[in-house]
Amino acid sequence: MVTVLSGERTKRACIWLWLGATVALSGCVSQDTKRDAINDINRAFKEEYEAILARNGTHLASAGAGATFDATVAALVSLGMEVRQQSRGLGFINADAAAPLPLSRGEWDRAGAADLPRARELLRRHVGLLAEFFNFEPEGLDTVITATIIEARGGSEVSLTMRMREVAAPKSGLPRREYPPPSALQAGLDKIWGALERELKAKAPRS
Predict the structure, then answer these.
(1) Could you tell me which of 164, 147, 123 has the C-alpha nearest to residue 36?
(2) At what angle do helices 182-203 and 65-78 cross, to 10 degrees?
(3) Which residues contact 46 (CB under 8 A, 6 or more apart)?
């Protein structure tokens, strides 16, 4: 028993020493270095962001542009987004909400966990052990979604984008990311498309 307790104390002491060394190290990391680290993540995630939008950022709806516009507004509102700008004539909608919306916190955490190993690997090149404290925290961020709706053969075409906007300084001390984690982007798009499909079905004329 004494041996076990001693081992536990040693383990705790090592953890505290590691934490202390990491905190001390973080104070030595310049803001330029931190910014370079986040820029690396943004560059990597931008490539995936564009690839995901190319695959899943545009959907065709069988309804006309007007009906699809109204359904898109309703879909975004149903997911907690607040429409800030809209133009039926231009087929343009801009909406935002405090992150992690349109995802739930559980959905955000699951998506972030899938992308966290790669993000920390990129960070380690710049900030070393400080990378272990990095998480995709949604606090202090807004999700900004834009939608464009245009006439298309047989109906209309809807295109979406999703970006992150800082509204409060991060607890980590690392600069904010401009792009959402790729898995969160994919999950967010899927959720919006599902909501849009439900709204279009609800608004479809009954025979």
Answers:
(1) 123
(2) 120
(3) 178, 179
Whether 23 shows a pLDDT value over 60: the answer reads no
Per-residue pLDDT, averaged over 181-199, amounts to 97
Q: Is 186 left (phi over 0), alpha (psi -120 to 50) or beta?
A: alpha
b/e code 57-94 from CB counts within 10 Å (16+ = b) = bebebebebebbbbbbbbbbeebebebeebeeeebebb
Q: What's the N-to-C CA distance of the chain in angstroms?
A: 77
Q: What is the pLDDT of residues 97-124, one digit of tens each?
A: 999 999 999 999 999 899 989 888 887 8
pLDDT by residue (tens digit) across 46-103? Answer: 889 999 999 999 999 999 999 999 999 999 999 999 999 999 999 999 999 999 999 9
Query: Mind listing the domains of the chain with CATH numbers?
Result: 31-203 (3.30.530.50)
Distance in angstroms (rounded) separating the CA atoms of residues 191 and 147: 14
Distance between alpha carbon 87 and the CA centroid of its chain, in Å? 25
Separation between Cα atoms, residue 45 and residue 177, nearest integer Å: 9
Instruction: Considering only residues 17 and 196, tell me which one the structure prediction assigns the higher pLDDT.
Output: 196
